[in-house]
Amino acid sequence: MLSYQHGFHAGNLADVHKHALLAWLLDYLTAKDKPLSYIETHAGRGLYDLGAPEALKTGEAAAGISCAESLFALDHPYMRALAATRAAHGPNAYPGSPLIAAHCLRAGFDRITLAELHPAEHDALGRAMAGQGARVYKRDGLDMAQAMCPPTPRRGVLMVDPSYEVKADYVTLPHALGQIARKWNVGVLVLWYPILRDGPHASLTAALRAEMPEIACFEARFKPARLGHRMIGSGMAVLRAPWGMAAEAARIAEMLENL
User: Fold this and answer.
1) Which of 117, 155, 158, 252 sits at a 20 to 30 Å CA gap from 23?
2) Count of CB atoms within 10 A of residue 189's CB?
3) pLDDT tens by residue, 45-82
């Protein structure tokens, strides 16, 4: 259950899809002069080295951000977060979603709460987020979200990005998110899911729509990172997606599909 480490996959096309949409969402929400809560349940280590042996072994970053970066405008919030991370940590640095959030949110105004259960990843997350004003917990993230929602401030985003190593996630996540949605009736809930060759996401998205009929599923298909790789796309299910997000999601999906 605690074996997954994202360093092997950081910067792949699923990350590009997920992080570009997350950055757009947070940039949109911070345009309003009201504070936000950002809660992430499976935060990972927050900062990745794309020159590390793990990343080089899989080649997923080389087939991901290295190919896709030139497709984004420099002023896109995702590119701004990427540039700030490289400026602080070197040219091979890549931000996970906690650092994306920290760069997009407003220091001292918005509130960041992160959970990561893997001991080594949790320790690395604490180092990566030092000085960012985030609260970092070593606990089950969904339990944390259930306990703290609705948060203060009430406006905000819940980011759920599990590894899906535990196959029961496909069954349990929709109900868990539905419970949180009913408790936090103004929160924007975001769930990332992989699109694999054998299509396990189909039952997940059907269950999400049964729990929350108004949820939007933004998907992008792309070429496998290497021969035999099962992942052929990325999905972001968003409850209470703000105006304009569907258009941005379609634009990013078209970019990735044409790589």
Assistant:
1) 117
2) 25
3) 999 999 999 999 999 999 999 999 999 999 999 999 99
- Strand, coil or helix: what is 198? coil
Separation in Å, CA 249 to CA 108, 145, 234, 237: 29, 26, 11, 11
The pLDDT value given to residue 2? 58
Helix axes 77-89, 97-104, angle to 10 degrees: 110
- pLDDT grade for 3, boundaries at 50, 70 and 90: low
Check pLDDT > 70 for residue 1: no
Contact (CB, 8 A) for 230 and 190: no
Encoded tokens for 161 = 């990005």
Q: How far is CA 219 from CA 44, 146, 215, 232, in A?
A: 22, 26, 13, 11
What are the angstrom distances between the C-alpha of 139 and each of 115, 122, 136? 6, 9, 9
Length of the chain: 259
C-alpha pair distances (Å), 107 with each of 43, 72, 187: 19, 25, 20
**Residue 185, exposed/middle/buried by CB under 10 A (0-12, 13-18, 19+)?**
exposed
